[in-house]
Amino acid sequence: MSVINLVEAALACADPDSPTRRRAIHTLCAQGDLETFTVARRLCAAESAAERLLGVHIIAGLDAFRDRALPILRYLAVGDDDTAVRTAALASAGQGDDLGR
Fold first, then answer.
1. How far apart are CA 47 and CA 97, in angstroms?
2. What integer best gives the mean pLDDT of the chain?
3. What is the predicted pLDDT for the residue at 16?
4. Rounded to whole angstroms, what are the CA distances from 27 to 35, 76, 81, 87, 97?
5. Is 47 exposed, middle or buried (0-12, 13-18, 19+ CB in 10 A)?
């Protein structure tokens, strides 16, 4: 499946904890390529909170792009208007911040 197809499959799930969504996120993170990072970054800037939340879940699992993801996650953790997005971004940024901040 393409990155876009996986994102669409994940967004089609109303439950953010559904097995289908988790599988799509896992597959995207396993790909770990620039295309996936770029799509996740765009999702993090979307108008929809559901899309931003999906973006956070994807970008947090892309270890190869951790340095580029941390500023995005920190921004969402303090500036997003959705509680679920802020919470997910804060948890994800905290897990990857090896500087002890």
1. 26
2. 92
3. 85
4. 13, 23, 28, 23, 23
5. exposed
- CA-based diameter of the chain, in Å? 37
Task: Return the closest-CA partner of residue 61 out of 25, 94, 91.
Answer: 25
The 8 Å CB, 24+ separation contacts for 19-28 are: 21/54, 25/54, 25/57, 25/58, 25/61, 26/61, 27/1, 28/3, 28/58, 28/61
62-101: pLDDT as tens digits: 999 999 999 999 999 999 999 999 999 999 987 655 433 3
Assigned token pair, 100: 């002890």
